[in-house]
Amino acid sequence: MSHVKAGGTSKNLKDSQGQRLGVKRFGGQAVREGEVIVRQVGMTKRAGEGTFISRNFTIHAARDGVVSFTKKNIKSFTGKSHPRVEVSVK
Question: Does residue 1 fall inside a structural domain?
């Protein structure tokens, strides 16, 4: 006979940190070259004029200026159009 009750295993102890995604500079704000404008997973927002997109889909400012967001319809491979937001620096 055991002297101690059996201790059960707990399964939900692991938790990962948040990725801090989202818009970092909003429309009308001034940015400098190289600053992060949007951190995202996938291409939910598109890089427009004056911006570039990095390997992890982060949109950066390619030059100094003011951030603007515009809505565009993007056609997919099948011909269906999807509304997307385009980020640009002017």
Answer: no
Radius of gyration in angstroms for the set of CA atoms belonging to the chain, rounded to a whole number: 22
Cα separations in angstroms, 60 against 2, 18, 72, 73: 62, 21, 19, 22
Q: pTM of the prediction?
A: 0.79
35-58 pLDDT, tens digit per residue, is 999 999 999 999 999 999 999 999
Q: What is the pLDDT of residues 66-83, one digit of tens each?
A: 999 999 999 999 999 999
Is 41 inside a domain boundary? Answer: yes
Q: Tell me if 35 sits within 8 A of 64, measured CB to CB.
A: no
Is residue 79 a part of any domain in this protein?
yes
Q: Is 78 among the domain residues?
A: yes
Q: What is the CATH number of the domain that holds 61?
A: 2.40.50.100
Sole residue written with tokens 């990962």: 16
